[in-house]
Structure formats: C-alpha cells, structure tokens
C-alpha cells in the first residue's frame, strides 16, 4: 500500500530538483549535520559546533534569540498591517478601527504586533542584563556590546514611533510628552523637535514621518545592525563562556 | 554499544580543539577547549531554538487572543487626557523629569548613561570571569548590595521629593535659594545627588568588598537596572492625574477628554 | 602594472614633496568619499525642515477688527476659539488679544468654561481670566502666552508661532501688550 508513495519520495530525493536544493543527505551523521548547518543560508548563522555550556538554558535564557524571533514576528505582522493602513490624519484612525472590526484576523494581527513590540523591549533589555552579568562584553567582544547598545536604543525608538500610528488620544498625547522632552534638549531642542516632528505640534507631518521611520528607515537600520551583531558573535569566538 | 562518530579523545591524551578568534593575537588569550566540551549545533542547539521559538509563538498567540491592543478615541489636540503618559518603557524618563529640569532628565541623563554604557568594555578590560554570572561569589554579594542600595535610595528620594513639595519646598526655594526655584531644585541638587550617590556606591564597594574594576562595574550596572525598574514602576503604577503620587491599588483612572 | 614606490624619484622639499604619491591618492579617495557622504547628510536637514506649516505655527487670518468687536458685543465678550491655530481671541478693555491655549503650568489644552465664566484647565485646575487670560487661581505660574497680531488690509492676522510669543511674567493686566486697539 505504501510502496507507491515511498517509491515517489525516493525518486524525488534522487531527482535533480532535490539535489539542486540540498547537497547532503539527512543530517543523521556528523558529516551531514555539519553540511546542513554550513550550507544552509539560514542555519549558517550558527557555527557547526557550539560549546556545551552554551546549551544550558539558564546561561542565556534564549533572550537574544527570542529578541530576533520577535523582530521577525514584528516584520511579518507589520507588513500585513501595512496593507490596510494609510498614514494620514483623517484616515489612520479609521483604518485601525477597520482592522479591528472589518478585516478578518485584523484584530489578532494588530494585537500580536502590539504585544510582540512590548515583548521585544523586554527581551532586548533582559538580553543586555544577561550579557552584562556574564561579563560577555569583555575583550574581544567590546565592539559587539556597543552595537548591542545601539540596537537597544533602536528597539525603543522603533516601539515609540509605532506608538503614534493609531492616531488615537493615547498615541497622540504619549508622543506629545516625547515632543516636549525633545524640545527641552539644551540649545538645539526647539529646532530639533520642529525638524524631527515636522511642526510646532503633532500633525500630518509627524504622523507620516513616524510612519516612514517605523516601517522603512528604522527596520532597515536595525536589520543592518543585527547582521553586524550576529557576524561579530561568530568572529569574536562564538558565544561567551568560561576561559 | 556503538562508539560515537567523529574525533574522540583518547584517554590521557590532551587533544585540543582551537577556537579561532579573529582578533589580534596579543589582545586575546588563546582559547583552548577540550573536544568533548563542544556539541553539534544540529540537533542540540537547533532543537532548543525551535522549542523556544514555538513556546513564545504560542504564548504570543494566546496573549493576543486574550487581550486587545488599546485603542482610545480619535486624537484631538483640543483635550488633554490627565495624566498624559508616555509609553511605559519611557515612563522612567517621565518620572525622572518630575524631579529635575526637563532637558536634564529627558535628554542629558539618558545620553550620558548610553555613552557610559557603550564605554563599559573599554573601562573594564580584564577577561576575568567571562561566562560566569557575577564573575565570583563576591560579585554576587556586590550585586545584591547594589540592588538594595539603589532600590531603597531611589524610592526614598522620590518620597522625599513628594514630602518636601507638599510642605512648600518650591516656595521656600524661590524665597531663599540663590537662583530661585530653578537653579538649585532643578539643576544643582539633582546633579549633585546623582553624582554623589553613584560615587558613594563605587566607594562603598571598594571599601566593603575590596572590589576591582569588574566588581564596581557590576555595582554600577545593578544600580542602573534597579533605578530604571523603580522609576518605571513608580511612573506606571503610582502616578495619577496631575502626575501626583498614589498607592498602586488606589490609582484613579485617567481623566479622558474635556470639551474645548 | 603596479610598481613599488621608489623613494629616490620623489623630490623631498615642501609639503607636496613629503606626501608620497600613493598617500595623495589615498587621501583623495578618502576625501572624495567623505565629501559625498557629507553632501548627502547635509542635504537631509534642510529637506526635513518643513516650510509649509498648517495649524499651530501658521499665520491665521481671523477677520476684521470691526466684525470681531461686533461678535464680542453680541456675546458679552465670550472668547472666540480658533481650533486650528490653538488660540482664543479675547477682548480686554481697549483691544483684542490672541491667547495661546496651552496652560503655562504643564502644557495642557485649556478650555473656556462658560458656566464659570473663565478658563479652567482640567489638569490641575488653573483658572484664567476671561478677558485678559491672567491667572485667577491654581498652580499656573504666569498668564497664558499671547500671539502677535498684525493688521493687513483690514484683516487681522494672528502669528501662531509658539516660539515667538508675548510671554507675560507678571500676573496682572498690562495694556501695553495690546497690538490691536479698538
């Protein structure tokens, strides 16, 4: 009964399409496990082998990895939300309302985007705390700590720019608090706030600017820094551990 | 019993695997590790990553199904909700600016802290204790000490500020202090407090625990984490209308909107 | 073909002589790249700075002095709200002023409460006078700020730039701030 599908599966696996995708057998031997990791573009972020102590969950609590995971979730849900959202003062709020009431699965996607955003702030912070207490910023990983600090700031700014987009009272006045703080910067405050928010108070300019920053500029910058961050983990000797 | 594949150490033989670090050789101690200290990424690490990601995805899905993201009325500059609060992860700054000048609390203090944070690995350059939480039992004691120190002091300072302001401190300052109600209350006193208390923490750690650079750095970092958390908690759950202080269980709801 | 640099061929006098050819090229590449990056960065700031301002910050026409005075006459000096420009037109003795409706205490939007016949900030209860916007109670440290008003071809134009206001420090009505007399 199962001979026919088994035969078809065998043919697929020995056919040219499969062989063009995978250049190794199933990863059940050391050789194939190594090949699986370093011939796969997604898996090759990892080395082939890691130090055994790094596998202990209480060492990292997976916080760095989960931050990246949430970044991916946010990219996916955010892209979906963009299909229904228009960043203008008279449409934005109605579009969010439509997402919640008219669009199928709109509410849950918006919820996921919101909670994952909050979650990412938490995981990035906890990741930093872990990295500090395990002394993982020490040479040769100094510069990666600097990159990580920038990523923490970017995470906060990403979350903050997204906060304005629903254009409801909560968003408007929370971001107004930020506007007033930016204005209070010494010497350049008024000018800086005016240029960044595009006006003397929040309006159409601020909404559009925050939208562009939130969906294009900041995710690009974050992705760029994440790439450097990961690359340097590998180049600085992998995950930290006792000497 | 089958022997595992791949290179195996002989008993008594010091076969070592060198992990490469692409940095200048004199700046890094060469990392030698025994072969048996490593594990294959496939399957050992990938299975952990997979399970972690799945658990979080399920958790996120459940939370998103259970709790809706907040959405209030359409925004209008005509009515200010009372209090207007920033998102929770910035409420620590908003809390801070109740106690000092706006520009100092909202811009200068965070900028200085972030620059200091980036400088940490260039100040603490020893490689002692990498990969070990708190480096040593002494480090752990220092962390507990700094946590207690920072938490208690931050709470007391917030309460002290409230107490003083309730008893006409601003009026007193503008009548008696040089520079009126700005120079001392908004600048000199907060700046001095922050610098003196941080320096005192470092000194205490050096005297009581004979701390080295790594150890006072643990104290400063722990202090930061605790101050950050305390400010966030106070800002989120203890500030009601007018940013006045309330007990978390007696927090009045936000006064939403007023006709123009 | 790239040949190794030969020290003997270069003259060694003056700054140009001391800079080796290869260093000069290197500096050129570096300078060119920095120049290009600098140009792109310098372009961003003026590009992002908005020139066309709607609402707060714009110059808002509010009609002629006569029509405004007529309106004040018929409503017993109830302040005239301009939502877009975020100000109230008030009628103190002898003229018209435009009060920025941002509480001088902590920046809340101040509404006019008809039942109390004055401005009452909802945030901390600051009270302002209906005609002059000076403080009548509450924590506000000074009167509401005033926008400059100019008359152009019979129409009053309110300059709502919040960085260029009449900032009264004393809490009393001073007729010298009047720009429009009527």
Structure overview:
The complex is a heterotrimer of chains A (243), B (260) and C (182). Chain A is mostly helical and 243 residues long. Chain A contains eleven helices and one strand. In chain A, helix 5 packs antiparallel against helix 7 (106-133) and helix 6 packs across helix 7 (106-133). Chain A starts with a helix and ends in an 8-residue tail after the last helix. The mean pLDDT of chain A is 94. Chain B is mainly alpha-helical and 260 residues long. Chain B has two domains: 36-69; 86-238, no CATH class. Chain B is built from seven helices and three strands; from the N terminus they run E-E-E-H-H-H-H-H-H-H. A two-stranded antiparallel ribbon of chain B has the order 1-2. In chain B, helix 4 runs parallel beside helix 7, helix 5 crosses helix 6 and helix 6 (180-209) crosses helix 7. The mean pLDDT of chain B is 86. Chain C folds into two domains: 1-49, no CATH class; 59-181, Rieske Iron-sulfur Protein, CATH 2.102.10. In chain C, strands 1, 2, 3, 4, 9, 10, 11 and 12 form an eight-stranded antiparallel beta sheet that branches. Chain C has a four-stranded antiparallel beta sheet with strand order 5-6-7-8, with no helix packed on it. The longest helix of chain C is centred in the first third of the chain and has 28 residues, at 21-48. Chain C is elongated and about 95 Å long. Chains in contact: A-B, A-C, B-C.
The Rg value of chain C, from CA coordinates, equals 30 Å
Q: What is the residue-mean pLDDT of chain C, rounded to a whole number?
A: 87
Tally the helices of chain C: what do you get?
Answer: 3
Strand fraction of chain C equals: 15-25%
Per CATH, what is the topology of the largest domain in chain C?
Answer: Rieske Iron-sulfur Protein
Which regions of chain B have little confidence, pLDDT < 50, spanning 5+ residues? none
The gross shape of chain B turns out to be: flat
The quaternary structure here is heterotrimer
Sheet of most strands of chain C = 8 strands, antiparallel
Tell me the total number of β-strands of chain C. Answer: 12
User: Got a strand count of chain B?
Assistant: 3
Mean pLDDT rating of chain B: 86
Radius of gyration of chain B: 26 Å
CATH homologous superfamily assignment of the largest domain in chain C: Rieske [2Fe-2S] iron-sulphur domain
Q: What class, by secondary structure content of chain C?
A: alpha+beta
């Amino acid at each position: 009964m199962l001979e026919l599908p088994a035969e078809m599966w065998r043919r697929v696996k020995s056919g040219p399409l499969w062989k063009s995708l995978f250049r190794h057998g199933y990863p059940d031997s050391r050789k194939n496990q190594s090949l699986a990791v370093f011939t796969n573009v997604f898996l090759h972020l990892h080395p082939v082998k890691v130090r055994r102590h790094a596998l202990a969950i209480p060492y990292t609590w997976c916080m760095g990895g989960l931050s990246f995971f949430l970044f991916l979730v946010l990219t996916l849900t955010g892209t979906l939300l963009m299909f229904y959202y228009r960043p203008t003062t008279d449409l934005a709020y109605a579009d969010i309302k439509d997402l919640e009431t008219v669009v199928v699965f709109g509410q849950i996607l918006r919820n996921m985007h919101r909670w994952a955003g909050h979650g990412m702030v938490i995981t990035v912070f906890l990741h930093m705390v872990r990295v500090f207490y395990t002394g993982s910023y020490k040479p040769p990983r100094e510069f990666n700590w600097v990159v990580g600090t920038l990523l923490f700031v970017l995470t906060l700014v990403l979350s903050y720019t997204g906060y304005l987009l629903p254009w409801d009272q909560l968003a408007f006045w929370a971001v107004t608090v930020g506007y007033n703080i930016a204005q209070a910067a010494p010497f350049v405050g008024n000018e800086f706030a005016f240029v960044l928010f595009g006006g003397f108070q929040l309006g159409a300019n601020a909404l559009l600017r925050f939208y562009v920053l939130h969906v294009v500029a900041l995710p690009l910058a974050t992705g760029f820094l994440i790439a450097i961050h990961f690359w340097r983990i590998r180049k600085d000797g992998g995950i930290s551990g006792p000497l | 019993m089958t022997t595992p594949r791949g290179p195996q150490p002989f008993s008594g033989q010091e076969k070592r695997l060198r992990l490469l670090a692409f940095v200048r050789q004199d700046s890094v101690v060469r990392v030698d590790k025994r072969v048996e200290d490593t594990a294959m990424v496939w399957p050992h690490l990938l299975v952990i990553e997979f399970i972690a990601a799945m658990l979080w995805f399920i958790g996120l899905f459940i939370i998103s199904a259970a709790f809706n993201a907040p959405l209030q009325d359409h925004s209008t500059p005509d009515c200010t909700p009372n209090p207007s609060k920033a998102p929770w992860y910035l409420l620590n700054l908003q809390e801070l600016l109740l106690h000092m000048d706006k520009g100092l609390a909202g811009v200068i203090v965070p900028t200085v802290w972030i620059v200091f944070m980036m400088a940490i690995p260039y100040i603490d350059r020893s490689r002692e204790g990498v990969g070990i939480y708190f480096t040593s039992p002494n480090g752990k004691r220092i962390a507990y000490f700094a946590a207690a120190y920072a938490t208690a002091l931050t709470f007391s300072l917030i309460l002290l500020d409230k107490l003083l302001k309730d008893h006409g401190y601003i009026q007193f300052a503008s009548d008696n202090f040089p520079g009126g109600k700005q120079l001392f209350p908004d600048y000199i006193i907060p700046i001095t407090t922050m610098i003196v208390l941080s320096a005192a923490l470092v000194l205490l750690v050096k005297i009581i625990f004979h701390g080295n650079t790594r150890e006072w750095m643990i104290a400063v970092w722990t202090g930061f984490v605790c101050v950050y958390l305390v400010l966030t908690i106070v800002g989120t759950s203890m500030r009601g209308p007018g940013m006045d202080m309330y007990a978390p269980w007696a927090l009045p709801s936000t006064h939403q909107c007023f006709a123009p | 073909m790239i040949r190794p640099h030969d020290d003997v061929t270069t003259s060694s006098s003056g700054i140009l002589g001391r800079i080796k050819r290869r260093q000069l090229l290197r500096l050129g590449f570096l300078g060119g790249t920095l120049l290009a990056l600098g140009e792109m960065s310098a372009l961003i700031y003026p590009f992002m700075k908005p020139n066309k301002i709607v609402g707060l910050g714009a110059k808002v026409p509010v009609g002629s002095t006569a029509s405004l005075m007529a309106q004040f006459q018929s409503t017993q000096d109830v302040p005239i709200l301009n939502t877009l420009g975020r100000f109230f037109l008030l009628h103190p003795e002898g003229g018209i002023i435009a009060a920025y409706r941002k509480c001088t205490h902590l920046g809340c939007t101040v509404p006019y409460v008809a039942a109390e016949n004055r401005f009452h900030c909802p945030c901390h209860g600051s009270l302002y006078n209906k005609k002059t916007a000076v403080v009548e109670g509450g924590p506000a440290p000074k009167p509401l700020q005033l926008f400059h008003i100019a008359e152009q071809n019979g129409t009053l134009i309110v300059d709502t730039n919040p960085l260029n206001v009449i900032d009264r420090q004393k809490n009393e009505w001073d007729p010298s701030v009047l720009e429009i007399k009527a």
